[in-house]
Amino acid sequence: MSETNAAAEVAAPHRYTAALAADIEARWQDFWDANGTYDAPNPGGDLTGDADVVARPKKFVMDMFPYPSGAGLHVGHPLGYIATDVYARYHRMTGHNVLHTLGFDAFGLPAEQYAVQTGTHPRVSTEANIDNMRRQLRRLGLGHDQRRSFATIDPDYYKWTQWIFLRIFNSWYDPEADKARPIDTLAAQFASGERATPDGRPWDALTEAERADLLGEYRLAYASDAPVNWCPGLGTVLANEEVTADGRSERGNFPVFKAKLRQWNMRITAYADRLLDDLDALDWPEAIKLQQRNWIGRSEGARVDFPVQDHPDAKITVFTTRQDTLFGATYMVLAPEHDLVDSIVPAVWPEGTHDVWTGGHATPAAAVDAYRKQAAAKSDVERQAEAKDKTGVFTGAYAVNPVSGDRVPVFIADYVLMGYGTGAIMAVPAHDGRDFAFARAFELPMRCVVEPSDDRGTDPSTWDDAFGSYDAKIVNSAGEGVSLDGLGVTEAKARITEWLETRSIGEGTVNFRLRDWLFSRQRYWGEPFPIVYDEDGVAHALPESMLPLELPEVEDYSPRTFDPDDADTSPETPLSRNEEWVHVELDLGDGRGPRPFRRETNTMPNWAGSCWYELRYLDPHNSEQLVAPGTERYWMGPRDGQPHGGVDLYVGGAEHAVLHLLYARFWSKVLFDLGHVSSAEPFHKLYNQGMIQAYVYRDSRGIAVPAAEVEERDGAYWYEGEKVTRLLGKMGKSLKNAVTPDEICAEYGADTLRLYEMAMGPLDVSRPWDTRAVVGQYRLLQRLWRNVVDEATGEVPVVDAEPDEDTLRALHKAIDGVRQDMVGLRFNTAIAKITELNNHVTKVREVPRSIAERMVLLIAPLAPHIAEELWRKLGHDASVVHEPFPVADPAYVVDETVTCVVQVKGKVKARLEVAPSVSDEELEAQALGDPAVVAALNGAGIRKVIVRAPKLVNIVPA
User: Fold this and answer.
1) Same domain, 485 and 530
2) Rounded to an integer, what distance in angstroms lies between the CA atom of residue 573 and that of residue 559?
3) Which pTM value belongs to this model?
4) Contact 130, 175 (CB under 8 A)
5) Residue 868, SS3 per DSSP
6) Which of 297, 829, 892, 948 could pair with 952 as two cysteines, CB 3.0-4.6 Å apart?
7) Could you read off the pLDDT of 328-382 as tens digits, one per residue?
């Protein structure tokens, strides 16, 4: 401490300093904990409380689940947490019963990788990280109901994650009811004959395994052999959303390959229409809605069946949005992974096969095998990229165009994906750019069926590229029983669709880009599946009495990893190494007694626990139900303006648009359909906060250097005598630019940190961190303190006198503005208004008690510790947390006068001070009578007077 500062503290021993702030903050945090200040009562069941509080309007405020990192928090992490805390505090003060708490999303790969590296059990490291994070968050004064906090790794929590999985597993989507129903209702339809089995046999004639396979084709959670994203470097499969645009793992940046493995999936595609339609009623940023709409990707078109020549039982089914161009289909392309490929490949090349079609291979099988290996090494993005050279190979098989009867060759090519449509396309090269390029490369025929609007003619062999249009005439499209010639695209689509349907070789349909959700991982640190397999491989759900199925101990936590570039590998899970856990004898309560079973050794993805955590916040200690119905209805049920129900405010990053947010919506809809909840949507209002950025300094090698040790000299930046570069980017430990909240709290106090983060700019905009600027908010609190407390004596010298009119106007304008800003999450402008009021009050010789008290109440949501301390010093025994927020007097909000500009011929000739409520007629009369206006008119007549009371009069002379 400098001599000057030391002398100042002696002269002002009661000054607001970092040391005093630390003392105040610790005391009030202890008080809040001891008194349950932030406890939100439920209407019934667990956590009940004051009936008067429950009778108030409710407000459920949530942050996105944090993952407890070993590095702890930096100052960028709490931005959203502080914002929701301010919002929640404001609503408590405006008479709401506010539920605000925070748990921890604690399963996942980081803890598992740490366990692999150190030998520390993931639970030990994760719980230590949670304890540290709780300590850091508590220091910020966040008003969480700690009774409701939990972690996804708590067995009492993941018991219900497993329970929900079983509800989904034991459900199917009934398209007639347009909702999920118990799987038993489907089995009853098969048993009664209401629904026929695929081969027509009676239900009773099917074996248990055959019944299980048939029901598995309908279950909302099902296991299947399907193309997956296999990452040898991580030893696990990944969801599409976990693979980067360049075909590498989001975590670790390893290559990702396509492989066919047996995995658990969620049939989220059954809900595609509802997931799209219900977006309209949600109060979400339009950018997030657009991302979800694009991800779901609804397309209307037709399904068309192409018979395969020489294979009477085989057909290639395509989905197309341009069924009007069916006559122009001159070849077909299958994805290399398509199930049909192996069965249609002949032993030898057919007579007349072009050399360019074979890829230089002696047989079709050799060509297909080689090409498949080549395609497996590419990501989906790479496969769909506009590559200069088109690749593919002829399968040796031909299909038949159902409208023309023409024989069309069948290729495989990597630009067709199994993940979209049917994994097969009819290629219309004259009218699709990618097909055109492929046809040119492989010397395939083209047929013009959409009349070009330019002068290129109708012979595609003379074209430089394809012609595509929705505003054109159909040509060259007449065959047996149908002609599209002369029709527009819309009419042609309708006619050919009807023709296909009458012949049972196609139908109008809707397709989605959305794929079923891959729901299993080859990891240890995740929720075990509550599924066991009998000796016939039939999957059985564990009875509820056996939940939670807890993770067993294993000696090695790591999934087996492989050479990152070796696609010819397959997963080995850590759980499979615990033989005693995997192979068990159980009585499932089905009347068959104890039997041997094998447990599922995959675990659920880290998204599972965050799909439903909002519900557990409501009723965290309920061991009998997922959530008490009355409690769920009270906090999340539908109400005016929220037809689907949901959390009132959900704040988090925009990066979860098509991951967590889509998955959570799906789980909510299933639980809603099955009658477990009243809310069909989890989150009614979504707000995406921006990011706190920091400058990254790098030396000549490109290595980040400690930002705190960089000096600025003459506009350049230096570290240990070497010039370094500066670039604005993320904040993080690896970039050596992280600033911890502990550092700022120690130097200025938590209230200063809270104010600074809220004052940096609009909440939804990213902004750079500047430690030097923090002092501005520290000084605001020091001035506020001085307005209430005498720094020399510690006394409170406020007076019980009436404020002057200027001060009343300053106060009520601030109250009015701050209330609007709080509701709109505009905390930076709220702080600016409080600062302006505080500066006004510093000029008042004696501060009236009514002004001081309302200033403290105004700042209480933003800086709660100092507000509590000042409120107590002002003579109040109750906590400021539940005090009413000030209400503005409209008489003092409106200015006494406003300035009205008077223009003559567009030029300002006078300014009038008028009442804000002045009428158009009064204002016109005043303007026309003003001497300056009279002089400007100089006796001229008036053609028009335009009045915009109270701020403008525009006079147009004759």
Assistant:
1) no
2) 5
3) 0.86
4) no
5) helix
6) 948
7) 999 999 999 999 999 999 999 999 899 999 999 999 999 999 999 888 777 666 7
